[in-house]
Fold these 2 entries.
Entry 1:
Amino acid sequence: MVIDNDAVDALADESLGPGDKSVPPDLWGSTVREYLAGAPRLDQWQTPLLTLDRAVLDANRDLMAAWTAAAGVALAPHGKTTMAPQLWREQLVAGSWGITLATVWQAQLARSFGVGRIMLANSALDPVGLAWAAAESARAADFELYCWADGVATVELMDKILRESAGSPRVRVLVELGGPHGRTGARTRAGAHAVAAAIAASERLSLAGVAGYEGALAHDRSAEGVAVVRAYLRELATLHTELVAAGAYSGAAVVTAGGSAYPELVVEELAGLADPDGARGVPTTVVLRSGAYLVHDDGFYAGISPLAAPAKEPGLRSAMHGWARVVSRPEPELALLDGGRRDFPFDEGLPVPQLAVGGTLPPNAVVTALNDQHAFLRLPGADAADLPVGSVVRLGLSHPCTAFDKWRLIPVIDSVDAPDPRVVDLIRTYF
């Protein structure tokens, strides 16, 4: 799918500066391109720091592209995970159907980089944002934007906003089905049918499929959690089948679900709906929206994803790591690091110490708390000689969505396991 290569390539011409966290001051004023031409090394950077591993990014991207292709489903990775057009391009070049985003502003940012197909996994009710979506669809005939609606009131308000704006093609809307105690989404199939009828009756909207998010209904791999997810996905499949039988669609349809926790359940329950040629009535594309797979992690997704290594080989591995320096040893069994919650994610588990550079990390070392700018690293049985002030600790992190949003610029290294990692790229984010 299309993206503006010139716009993405131009990021290499942006200058580095003090607004880029942990960039060494002697690089301020240099462009990204100039910096990378010097074969730089990671140890030139300041701490705290977040890095990405080039080899792991490539392997994760290719694994998911091959897995979805073999399953017969399309992939529209959730771009809000990274908000990094450079990484979106890699995913699109690898065969992704489009990019998923969560807000109209995120869609606007993606469109500024030429992304040609966007799944807005949300309702579009802001008048300014919805008017932009309609105008952009009218301006660019090759631009496809899909958004969601989960209530009749939502449909009526969208239609009213669009009727008051300049003429444009109909906006493609998917009916969102939810579940009890979930997030958004019509709570019953009957309610979803009412939404579909309202879309069909509107002047400025077009019914384009069904959508949902199973990850809001469970948070583990327990038998109960898996059963809840399966039951929900079957309801979503039934809703689409009923809409096809009722002749509700005026054109092709999209069926979409799938975070990064239960992608195989989405494939098992929904892949059979794929009907690219419309042999069963309506041309249908099944779209998986997993976003965390590219970066993966050493925490939540490592424990729940069916594609994670080492349970699956080759499997997804974490491409992100934190680096923080020991700045204080105020007690024999305590080290304070210079990275905290402003630098590393903590909503799905605290950072996990993996190794030390310039010191020895005890096997039972554990991060027990984060302040804004400090991590509390407990070292049972250790003394000051084991992990001296000035040594650097590499941290495994959990949840890429809340790791990336703390960094405007992220160095990519050749390998996190290299004795002297080389910086091979810089990834610009937009949050």
Entry 2:
Amino acid sequence: MPEGLKTLTRYTIEEEHRHPGSSGEFSGLVNVVATATKIIANQVTRGAIVGSRRKLDTIANDIMVSETQWTGHLSALLSEQMSGAQPVPDAHRRGKYLLAYDPLDGSSNIDVNLPVGTIFSVLRAPAGSGAEPSDADFLQPGTRQVCAGFTLYGPATMLVLTTGSGVDGFTLDREIGAFVLTHPRMRIPEETTGFAINAANERFWERPVRRYVHECLDGIDGPRGRDFNMRWVASLVADTFHILTRGGVYLYPYDTRPPQRAGQVALLYGANPIAFIVEQAGGWATTGGDRVREVVPTEVHQRVPLIFGSRNEVQRIEHYHSEPEEGPRFDSSLFGTRSLFRPAGRANPV
């Protein structure tokens, strides 16, 4: 390891020392989660050997459970692969934290060798109830998170982490088998000239989103007066890391396609941890109408729209949602010019 680099273990211990009276449980939990993601990273790099995407999803989930539930730090776990909260077995001591996670975000990219990752959120378990942990324990708004992070399994394995005092990025040094601090105090520029959205869904977008995207695509000749770049990886962790390092906006907005549902991104183990990280890096995260971290969950697998990134751009999109009837009219007729890449028509406005 190059001289001067700090391991995640040292980093978490030093953070504990800044809080007199800390028990060490929290730093222990962070390091256990990091160990689980290192094991998952090894399985992901062997993806073609291990098997299908579904199998890798299951393997990643099993790794996270087996590496964390015995440590005494957790009361219960929740993941995309579980139907509901999974209490830590009675055979193990139960701790004061809850872990919600997506074991393999972007797993549809496995077959084409694009980046995937693990997203996680740590909450405090309700104190003093004495009851068996349940789904209700996880139904806390994102403002109550004590830690959030994600691991990106790409050319390098990266761990991005916040405990509420900024955002730090770590790279897995495979020679020593440890995460080392390589991206301290990550910050998202307030302004950007890039955005990420799945343009194929344009016909389902609400007017504020179409307004924003069309203004960006009008470029230097449009109302924004500058050119924008558009991208889409279909991997939340990959787009988040791109925004953390280069700025930008990510949009997975509400759309009108059937079946009707409020959004596409899991609130507890997707939108909330990403929003926590983004806000701690100086950005902003919204559903379009509400701050993501203030949404009160009603069920553990609740999904929401998610728009986040450079603060000024996200707040512009929020403003457009506050005046949904403003802006240009868009043609939604079957043969209308509704493409992102051609001027919108005037007939049959929506």
